[in-house]
Amino acid sequence: MDNKKTFIYLNGKVIGFVNEPQKFxxxxxxxxxxxxISGEINIAYxxxxxxxxxxxxxxRLRKPYLIVEHGKSKLTLEFITKxxxxxxxxxxxxxxxxxxxxxxxxxxxxxxxxxxxxxTEKTTHLEFDMAAIxxxxxxxxxxxEHNAIARQAMSANYMKQSEGLYASNFNQRFDSRTFILFYxxxxxxxxxxxxxxxxxxxxxxxxxxxxVSTYYGYNMSDALVLNRAAVDRGVGRSMFxxxxxxxxxxxxxxxxxxxKIPSPTSExxxxxxxxxKLSEDGIIEPEISVEEGDVLIGKVAPPRFLxxxxxxxxxxxxxxxxxxxxxxxxxxxVDSVIFTETPGATRTVxxxxxxxxxxxxxxxxASRHGQKGVVAxxxxxxxxxxxxxxxxxxxxxxxxxxxTRLTFGHLLEEIAGKAGxxxxxKIDGTSFTQTGNEKxxxxxxxxxxxxxxxxxxxxxxxxxxxxxxKASIFVGVAYYNRLYHMVSNKIQVRSRxxxxxxxxxxxxxxxxxxxxxxGEMERDALIGHGASLLLKERMLDQSDKxxxxxxxxxxxxxxxxxxxxxxxCPLCGNSSLVNVEISYAFKVLLxxxxxxxxxPKIKLKE
Length: 606
Hints:
By secondary structure, the chain is of the alpha+beta class. It folds into 5 domains: 6-128, Alpha-Beta Complex (Hypothetical Protein Ta0175, Chain: A, domain 2); 144-237 and 361-482, Beta Barrel (Dna-directed Rna Polymerase Ii 140kd Polypeptide, Chain: B, Domain 6); 242-356, CATH 2.40.50.150; 504-541, no CATH class; 545-595, Alpha-Beta Complex (DCoH-like). Helix content is 22%, strand content 26%. It contains 15 helices and 34 strands. A hairpin with a 2-residue loop joins strand 1 (6-10) and strand 2. The chain is extended and about 105 Å long. The N and C termini lie far apart (79 Å). The model has no long low-confidence stretch (mean pLDDT 91).
């Protein structure tokens, strides 16, 4: 192969080669900037691999940059003036070679300057703004540059999981699961992207007074202590909506489902009490309280097998109960019921259930800096620490969670939030706008004007004893999101119940009234403690204990012949068998081994 040849890959496939790779790449870029070929195309030359990659496929992340040529940015004062006067827009600059989008591969060929003063002769591009280093979701959080980057990723995730006002017409919608926060607020500390994206129209959190302090060991590690008075006034209170739907399906042979209260002769009839809340047409009505197992939509369906109807002696058509019931562990009030038709002219019913969710122990909250925590205690306000002016914080955050997580942006937000709250104004917390020290100086000045300590520290008194704490405690205002991970949706309890057919072990998962899994590591803990009887109880007695007959002579598994009233060994015909307690899953294993033509034998001791 000729060393001068550089192969060209289009979306990973070879389409040809060139002898002067750099010249070719420069030419493609120049053509793209003139608008003669699509701006979606990205090209990158790898000298080490001696290959040129052209990417045109969908799904690539691309980021806009200002083009730099001959040591100068192409965004001139003339363009800036036209932009301000709205004579041109962003797309005009893209089409006219001032801005271009690069993907991850083409970024490898670029030298990007952060600010205009950093431009050198080798610079190819310039960042719009230092905050553009982060994406949109990371920029919604203030002071992102003061946090460890892993926390920023977590913060972006928690924003997606937070309860808020996702749509203003939520009461007209029948989404499968939704959460609406009762009193959502716009944050005091905001950012430019937050304002420009107009996210305040769909707020998803509340500004809480946060004291960075421990509380009798309750807020150990990430746990939080909430003020009962704040919860009673509506902090974190939300409504949970869940929709159920059903339709009258049509079947071959002219049969179809019907909405009605099933008759007692229907297969799978649940008893009169189950249908007591339904109206005459078999559908529940709004504002009726429902518990798990209550029927919401009464429906009968034809039998599963056609033969069941043929030759039936009675005149009544046989049906089976196919009603929709409220799932296990759920309760609430019927919020809304609607009838509608599908394009195929089959009737459909949708029922929406609502239930009030007040914060309780085990519910999850998170700040915009990835500082998540679970409520460990909702303390009475008179037992909480209070400031000299009598302010009782809404939430207590453990001080140890800040230095280990490197979320100093959280502390900055608390100071800024406090300054903004006392001054009655919003604070801009966009990343990279000022240095940390400049910001601190600004907020310190604002706090001093209103008679507070410049760093937000306050002398606090213990609510239990009334004595002042020896150390000052940092108190500020932070924006917290309530996440939809709520203990009421996750709690599951079972004493005994359904088992799987194959292994005879308890079913899995909350929806199937399953048991909690006792795993390998829990087993190791019991072995380490020497608690062998507890281990036997968990893994055998409360799981899939079964008794089998084992032949004393040959060790095969036998059975009891009810006609001859004697035990039988199918292998040697012997009748001296003994009962042995084993796990049913072990019996299944023995049967599987037998299916592979291997004969397992169980040796018995006397």
